[in-house]
Design goal:
Largest sheet: 2 strands, antiparallel
Helix content: 55-70%
Order of helices and strands: HEHHEHH
Number of strands: 2
Shape: flat
Strand content: under 5%
Strand order of the largest sheet: 1-2
Number of helices: 5
Number of domains: 1
Structural class: mainly alpha
Oligomer: single chain
């Protein structure tokens, strides 16, 4: 596979992932359904600060793929989006967007599938798109 084809496939996957994350965040931004626990802005910001401290202390080289300056800027951007109470699902989506900026496969926030399924079962809406990669795998050149 040529390098340009590989880069195009990676770019497409990244663009689709970013779009889906944005749509999921927008879908989750609506008011939580009755009785769903929300976390205060202060609780979320404290948890987010702890997450970044934990990443810095646990990683051998946290800035291997993303510079410290870039990651600090991304941290400030995400922190500034914590401006209201949020449900667990909303917080996970937001925190995951920061974890993805580290660009290391093992750095993640567990998938919010249980929360997403409950949201959908209770009438929540979402963009009707599922992605399945079939055929030729994406491999480095």
């Amino acid at each position: 596979m040529k390098i340009s084809t590989y880069c195009m496939k990676i770019s497409t996957c990244c663009a689709v992932s970013a779009a889906l994350l944005s749509m999921a965040a927008a879908a989750c931004a609506s008011s939580p359904s009755g009785g769903e626990k929300t976390f205060s802005r202060q609780e979320l910001r404290a948890d987010f600060a702890q997450m970044y401290r934990g990443l810095r202390s646990a990683h051998f080289d946290l800035y291997a793929f993303t510079s410290k300056g870039e990651l600090d800027r991304r941290y400030a951007q995400v922190r500034d989006h914590i401006d209201r109470p949020m449900t667990l699902l909303q917080a996970k989506v937001l925190f995951e967007s920061f974890a993805a900026a580290v660009r290391m496969g093992h750095t993640r926030v567990d998938s919010p599938m249980a929360e997403w399924n409950a949201y959908r079962e209770n009438g929540g809406t979402g963009f009707p798109l599922a992605i399945r990669i079939a055929g030729e795998p994406v491999e480095p050149p």
